[in-house]
Amino acid sequence: MSGAAQYSDERAREIIAAHMGLEGPAMPILHALQKEFGYVPDAAVKEMAEALNISRAEMHGVVTFYHDFHRAPHGRHTLKICRAESCQSMGAERQARAFLDKLKLDWGGTTPDGALSVEPVYCLGLCAHSPSALYDGEPIGRVDAEMLDEIAAEARD
Amino acid sequence: MVKVYIPLDMAAVAMGADRLAAAVAQEAAARGETVEIVRNGSRGMLWLEPLIEVETPAGRVGYGPAKVKDVASLFDAGFLTGGAHLLNIGIVDEHPWMKKQNRVTFVRCGVIDPLSVAEYEAHEGFKGLTRAFEIGPAAVVEEVTKSGLRGRGGAGFPTGIKWKTVADCPPGQKYVVVNADEGDSGTFADRMIMEGDPLSLIEGMLICGYAVGASKGYVYLRSEYPIVAKVFQAAIEKALEAGWLGKNIKGSGFDFDVELRIGAGAYVCGEETSLLESLEGKRGIVRAKPPLPAHVGLFGKPTVINNVLSMATIPMIMEKGAKHYADLGVGRSRGTMPLQIAGNVKYGGLFETDFGIPLGVVVNEIGGGSRSGRPVRAVQVGGPLGAYVPVSLFDLPIDYEAFAAKDSLIGHGGLVVFDDTVDMSWMARFGMEFCAIESCGKCTPCRLGSTRGVETIDKIRNGMDVDANIALLKDLCHTMKFGSLCALGGFAPYPVESALRHFPEDFRKPALEAAE
Ligand SMILES: Cc1cc2nc3c(=O)[nH]c(=O)nc-3n(C[C@H](O)[C@H](O)[C@H](O)COP(=O)(O)O)c2cc1C
Ligand code: SF4
Ligand code: FES
Q: In this structure, what DSSP letter does residue B481 have?
C-alpha cells in the first residue's frame, strides 16, 4: 500500500516496545510492523525474536504461517478478490481468471510497475453481494469485469 | 430534525453506503433541510442495501437500494416525510421479510445506533446483565444450561455445560474468548451483529465473565472485517465511559475488561485451540484435546471460548428467562438461528427464525430462488466444510440432528445457493484445494490428503480411470474423516462426498463428452 515508511531498526524497536505490555503481543506487533513498512522485513523479525526472547526460527515460523503477512515489499495497492464458494456461485472464479490473464499475473502477483498486487481471499462476509472484492481495505460488492478494469487503471495513477 | 438511517454495515458500504451518506448530507445542506444521519447496522435485507430509513410518525420508512444518483429525486419526492418514490418499500418493520422472522439475537441490529449506550439501554440493553448480578453466578450458568443454547460456531456444543466446566475450575485467572473468526463462505452474521449491535456481544461477555469468574475477555476478529474492528473498538470505549466495563461495574464489585485482537488471514484460526495459539502469538496450529480449553485454555488458564452469536444471544436469554428461549425450536435444537442466505439467490440476507423451518422454504420462499433466474441445483449449508444439499432434500428442517442424519451440517447457518450451471466436480475439487491451502499442517491425513484429493479429482475430471479414481477419492475421504485431528481435515470430505453422492453425473462428464 502507498505511503509505507522506510525500514529502520530503531523504528521497529519502538513499535515492538509499544506493544510489550500486552499479553501475547506477537500478532499486534506484526500487524503494526506491516502497517508501518508495508511488509514484515527480516530485520524486524530478528528484533522481534530478541524482544520476545524466542529463536529467530520460531519467529520466522509465526510470520510465515499467516496469509496476511508479506515478507517482501508489496504493490502500492492491493486488490483482494474473493474466490470462496458464494462468490464462485456467481461466476467469480472465471471472472478473476480472465482479469489475472489480462494483467499477466497469477494469484498473489504484483504488476511489473509495482502498482497493484492481486491476492485471493476466502470470503469477505459480503456473500449476499457476490462476487466481491476488497481494494485497499474498501469493500466492493457485485464486482464485474468493468469494475476490475477500473481498479487496475486507478492503481496505475 | 429528521432522523435518517444509512447503514455502516460492510455489505451496505460495499454497495455504496458511505458515498450515499455523504451525498444525502450534502443535498440536505444545499436544500436547507436539517437531517441527523445515523449510521446503523443492517436490517438484514441485504438485497436492498444501501437501505435508507427515515423516521416518520407512522414508523421508519425505507428506500432501497439507494444510489447516489437517486438522492436528488428522493428529496424531490419528499422522502424526509416518507414520500412516494420508486425505491419506497414502506414501513420497514412491516416488510414481509421482516414480519416472517423471529428476531432474538438480532432484535436491535439495524434498529439502534450501534454506538449509543443510551439507545442500547432504551432497547432493553444491559437488563440481562443486571438480572445476572441479581441472581448470582451459579444461577446464571443454570439459566444458560436450561435455555438449551448450543454453540452457534459450528459444533453445536451446549453452552451451559462449557460455562459450568470453567466455573467449576478453582478460582484464579480465567478468560473469556470470543471467536469472531467467521471464515465460512456464506456467513456474515457475526460481522453484522458486531457492526450493528456490538454492545450485545460485550454484554454477553460480561455475563459470561461474571458467571465463570473471569475478569478478562478477548475478541479474536478476522482481518477481513475492517469495519467491525473500528465499530467494535469504539463500542468498547463507549462501554468503558458509561461504566459498563472496567472496575466495579455499576457498583456490582465485578471487574471486566475486553480487548480486541485481529487475526491474519488463516481459516484454521477459527478452530478454537488454533485460535488460542494465535492469541498467544504462535503459529495457529491445532492443539490435541484433551485437555479442553475449559481446563487449560488461553495462557494455560481455564477459558470459555464461544462464537459471537452464542455470546450475543446470552443477554436476551438472561433478560427473558431460559424457558422463553427453550420454548422456541424443534427437538434438541432450541431457540432461533440467524440464517445467512447467500450465493446465487434473489433475496440474500440475514433471516433469523426458530429452528425447524424447511430448507426449501428458506431458499425458495424467503430467498426467492436463484438470482440468475435459472433452476436452483444445490445449496451448500454450513460453510466450506458443509455438505452440498440437492433440491430433493429441500424438506429437511433446519435442525442439527435432522441435518446430521443426512450426513450434512448446519454449522454457522450459512446457505450458499447454486443454480444449474454449477459444476459439482469443480466445487468438490475446490473444497479439497481450500483444505490444502488452509491446513495447519499438524496431521498427515489433512495436510497430504487434501493435496492428493485435488490431484485425484483432477484425474477424474480429465476422464482418467474414473471408476478407480472415484474409489480412491472415497477412500481418501474416509481416511481424512477418521484420521484428522480437527474438523478442518475431518469435515473437508463433506462437500466432496455429498457432491459424489448427490451429483454423480458431474464426475463423469469428460468420459461422456469423449464418447460423444
Ligand atoms: C477449521 C475450523 C474453523 C472454525 N472456524 C470457526 C469460526 O470461524 N468461528 C467460530 O465461532 N467457530 C469456528 N469453529 C468452531 C470452533 O472450534 C469452536 O467450536 C467454537 O468457536 C466454539 O464456540 P461455540 O460453542 O459458541 O460454537 C471452527 C472449527 C474448525 C475445525
Ligand atoms: S486436520 Fe488439518 S487443520 Fe486440523 S490439525 Fe490436522 S492438519 Fe491441522
Ligand atoms: S464467499 Fe465471497 S464474500 Fe463470502
A: H
Which segments of B302-434 are extended strands (E)? 303-307, 329-330, 333-334, 336-343, 349-354, 376-381, 388-390, 414-419
Q: How far is the CA of B122 from the centre of ligand 3 (A)?
A: 35
Grid cell digits, residue B515: 464418447
Q: How confident is the model at residue A4 (pLDDT cuts 50, 70, 90)?
A: confident
Q: Where in chain B is the domain with CATH 3.10.20.600?
A: 329-419
* Whole-structure pTM value: 0.97
Q: CA Rg, chain A, in Å?
A: 17
pLDDT higher than threshold 80 for residue B514: no
Contact yes or no for B185 and A127 at CB 8 A: yes
**CB-neighbour burial class of residue B362 (10 A; exposed 0-12, middle 13-18, buried 19+):** buried
Size of interface A-B (CB pairs under 8 A): 146
Kindly report the number of other CB atoms within 10 A of residue B508's CB atom.
17
Per-residue pLDDT at B267 exceeds 60: yes
- Cβ–Cβ of A89/B279 closer than 8 Å? no
Q: Is domain A77-155 classified as CATH 3.90.580.10?
A: no
Say which CATH class B2-100 falls into. Answer: alpha beta
In chain B, which residues fall in CATH 3.40.30.10? Answer: 2-100
- Name the residue at shortest CA distance from atom 13 of ligand 1: B270
pLDDT of residue A157: 82
What is the SS3 assignment for B353-391? EECCCEHHHHHHHHCCCCCCCCCEEEEEECCCCCCEEEH
Q: Please tell me the predicted confidence (pLDDT) of residue B509.
A: 78
Chain A contact probe: residue of B416, B426, B429 with most A CBs at under 10 A: B416
Residue B231 is predicted with a pLDDT of 98
Cis omega (within 30 of 0) for bond into B65 = yes
pLDDT at A112: 96
A134 and chain B: CB distance < 8 Å anywhere? yes
Q: What's the confidence (pLDDT) of residue A1?
A: 46
Partner A contacted by B280 (CB < 8 A): yes
User: B490 alpha carbon to ligand 2 midpoint, in Å?
Assistant: 8
Which atom in ligand 1 lies closest to the alpha carbon of residue B156?
27
Ligand 2 nearest atom to the CA of residue B450, by list position: 2
- Cα(B44) to centroid(ligand 2), Å: 34
Taking alpha carbons only, the member of B499, B507, B498 closest to residue B469 is B507
Cβ-proximal residues to B157 (8 Å cutoff; 6+ apart), any chain? B150, B151
* Cell, residue B301: 488458564
- A129: contact with B, CB 8 A cutoff: yes
Q: CB distance A30–B264 less than 8 Å?
A: yes
Contact call for residues B41 and B197 (beta carbons, < 8 A):
yes
Is pLDDT at A48 greater than 70 in this prediction? yes
By C-alpha distance, which of B493, B275, B481, B484 is closest to B387? B493
Mean pLDDT of chain B: 97
Chain A hits for B194, CB-CB cut-off 8 Å, are: none
Among A31, A66, A86, beta carbon nearest to B186: A86
Range B424-507 classified under CATH 2.40.50.320: no
pLDDT value at B512 more than 60: no
